[in-house]
């Protein structure tokens, strides 16, 4: 089930699975991508290039060796069977949560978040989702499909209900999605300005964080299948992540790096550094 092709700096201290608090795993799936595929290569690109950055964060004055991390590799998947693939991701998430780990998943397209959020909700029925993205992902169907990277937060709403999804950086979607959002989710368009207030409102409820890296402006992050001009800066994303520090984060994912669309490697470096700062904030 688990394919460990590469190690990464996120396993520098060689903690075993049993000893780890944070477990990273890859979900290399992009089967519903509607424009440019390639996010299936994201997890291993992050691992392979991770040796180019330091273990130490000068922003947080912490280093990765201070967190007990285990990188379990990528989940092997049967390409072409979306429901079975999502079930495999959910099954592994369920194991991590049962073992009291903090799961951090690397995508892959954004649909991989759905089974992970659902399994987290099963353990934590009062779960709140914090969603960073350029896109609403609130369509009920996309090309007549209920399961799509464009429907993932709408499907999460099916079991979470109103007022449990907080969205930031949203600047693209169908008009009907924005109208639907007004009465069902809490959306901060274009930036993350309401995040501090929302963190105070969320309080100690369990939180799932999903970061679609295309929240970033393409001038910062062009290695993605659906680049969307008008995004936030890298420093703004880091500040948003640091704002989450007081929250009770129980699981997280980071998705939509398609490394082959940025041969300079800059987008992969951005993803790696975002992952480092996320882990050092929530771990």
Structure, explained:
- It is a single chain.
- This protein is of the alpha/beta class and 283 residues long.
- It has eight helices and eleven strands.
- It has helices spanning 42-49, 82-98, 113-123, 152-160, 175-181, 195-202, 234-243, 266-282, and strands spanning 2-3, 22-27, 56-57, 62-63, 69-75, 102-107, 128-132, 165-170, 186-189, 206-212, 248-255.
- α3 packs parallel to α4 (152-160).
- The model has no long low-confidence stretch (mean pLDDT 94).
Protein traits:
Arginase, Chain A, 11 strands, 8 helices, two-stranded antiparallel sheet, 283 residues, alpha/beta, single chain
Structure described in brief:
The protein has 283 residues and is α/β, with parallel strands linked by helices. 31% of the residues lie in helices and 19% in strands.
CATH architecture field: 3-Layer(aba) Sandwich
> What would you call the shape?
globular
Percent in strands: 15-25%
> What kind of sheet is the major sheet?
9 strands, mixed
Write the layout of secondary structure elements.
Layout: E1 2-3, E2 22-27, H1 42-49, E3 56-57, E4 62-63, E5 69-75, H2 82-98, E6 102-107, H3 113-123, E7 128-132, H4 152-160, E8 165-170, H5 175-181, E9 186-189, H6 195-202, E10 206-212, H7 234-243, E11 248-255, H8 266-282
Parallel strand pairs: 2-5, 2-6, 6-11, 7-8, 7-10, 8-9, 10-11
Antiparallel strand pairs: 1-5, 3-4
């Amino acid at each position: 089930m688990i394919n460990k092709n590469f190690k990464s700096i996120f396993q520098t201290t060689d903690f075993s699975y049993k000893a780890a608090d944070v477990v990273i795993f890859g979900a290399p799936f992009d089967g519903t991508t509607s424009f440019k595929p390639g996010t299936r290569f994201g997890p291993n690109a992050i691992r392979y290039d991770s040796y180019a950055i330091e273990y130490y964060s000068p922003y947080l004055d912490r280093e990765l060796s201070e967190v007990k991390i285990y990188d379990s590799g990528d989940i092997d998947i049967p390409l072409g069977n979306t429901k079975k693939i999502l079930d495999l991701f959910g099954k592994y998430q369920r194991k991590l949560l049962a073992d009291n780990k903090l799961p951090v998943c690397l995508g892959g397209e954004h649909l991989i978040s759905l089974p992970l959020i659902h399994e987290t909700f099963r353990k934590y029925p009062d779960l709140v989702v914090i969603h960073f993205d350029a896109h609403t992902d609130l369509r009920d169907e996309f090309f007549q499909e209920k399961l799509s990277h464009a429907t993932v937060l709408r499907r999460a709403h099916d079991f979470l209900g109103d007022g449990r999804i907080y969205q930031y950086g949203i600047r693209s979607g169908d008009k009907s999605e924005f109208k639907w959002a007004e009465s069902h989710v809490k959306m901060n368009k274009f930036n993350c300005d309401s995040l501090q207030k929302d963190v105070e409102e969320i309080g100690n409820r369990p939180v799932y964080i999903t970061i679609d890296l295309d929240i970033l402006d393409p001038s910062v992050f062009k290695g993605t299948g659906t680049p969307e001009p008008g995004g936030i800066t890298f420093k703004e994303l880091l500040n948003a992540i640091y704002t989450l520090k007081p929250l009770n984060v129980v699981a997280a994912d980071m998705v939509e790096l398609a490394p082959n669309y940025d041969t300079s490697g800059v987008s992969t470096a951005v993803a790696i550094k975002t992952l480092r700062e996320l882990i050092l904030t929530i771990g």
